[in-house]
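Hi support team,

I've been running sequence recovery on a batch of backbones for a student project. Most finish fine, but this one hangs at about 90% for roughly twenty minutes before it completes. I'm not sure whether the input is malformed or the queue is just slow. I've pasted the structure tokens below so you can try to reproduce it. Let me know if you need the job ID as well.

Thanks,
M.K.
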């Protein structure tokens, strides 16, 4: 198979456990670029946070953000933009505030904007430090009334209750895609939003097929894209449940996993 494109998750995959890029990963991406093989970031993150990583890699590439809800080409032109409707946005925010008023921090992402109720919240500050992007304080009801609707709602919570919250929300809102991206983060998008669907949008735009693509990932919300492409590769640091489902595993995000696997395929 001639590999034409590489997709990769960010947290736990492209970034190490300190949320930093390894020099080997930067080298791999630049070597791919010399061969005209795009290295496309596919993440639940907002575009602004993803662009900072591309800048550090010194490449200009398309991006698939919000878990597939927003896809842009390398010129930042929108190819796909999927937002949660007014009724569902209001209903799920009301539900979380009613059931878990002290246990969830709601983050509201629309286009390239990140809104929170309290910009001084510790969980928000932690996310700002990880992504190097600043949140804006806003009233969610006002945003909804102004038709500023979300591509994604992120629920920050505690590890010991995240699976329960995920299950409750999935049962009450079957029309939405609700999935954990880590043990403390729950991503909420429209039902048909997925990393796999975002990849398919971009592949059609580039006149490529999934069989020509490689993807790297490490978590539950990566499984659909890993199973879609010609070669889905799981990082060693992924949960055992995920590694059991996939054939190809590389070293961890702290151990040059991406570079070494691409080297095996003679791409870098």
């Amino acid at each position: 198979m001639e590999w034409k494109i590489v997709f990769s998750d960010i947290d736990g995959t492209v970034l190490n456990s300190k949320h930093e890029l390894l020099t080997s990963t930067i080298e791999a991406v630049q070597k791919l670029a010399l061969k005209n093989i795009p290295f496309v970031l596919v993440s639940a993150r907002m575009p602004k946070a993803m662009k900072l990583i591309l800048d550090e890699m010194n490449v200009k590439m398309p991006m698939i953000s919000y878990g597939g809800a927003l896809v842009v080409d390398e010129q930042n032109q929108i190819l796909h933009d999927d937002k949660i409707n007014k009724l569902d946005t209001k209903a799920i925010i009301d539900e979380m505030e009613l059931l878990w008023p002290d246990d969830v921090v709601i983050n509201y992402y629309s286009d390239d904007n990140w809104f929170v109720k309290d910009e001084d919240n510790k969980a928000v500050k932690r996310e700002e430090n990880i992504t190097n992007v600043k949140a804006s304080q806003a009233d969610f009801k006002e945003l909804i009334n102004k038709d500023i609707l979300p591509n994604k709602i992120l629920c920050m919570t505690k590890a010991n209750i995240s699976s329960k919250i995920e299950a409750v929300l999935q049962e009450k809102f079957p029309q939405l895609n609700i999935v954990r991206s880590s043990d403390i983060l729950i991503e909420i998008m429209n039902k048909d939003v997925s990393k796999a669907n975002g990849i398919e949008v971009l592949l059609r735009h580039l006149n490529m097929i999934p069989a020509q693509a490689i993807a790297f990932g490490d978590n539950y919300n990566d499984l659909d894209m890993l199973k879609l492409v010609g070669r889905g590769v799981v990082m060693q640091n992924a949960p055992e449940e995920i590694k059991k489902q996939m054939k190809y595993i590389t070293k961890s995000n702290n151990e040059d996993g991406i570079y070494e696997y691409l080297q095996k395929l003679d791409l870098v």
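--
Follow-up from support: It reproduced on our side and the slowdown came from queue contention, not your input. The CA atoms of residues 29 and 64 lie 17 Å apart. No action needed from you.
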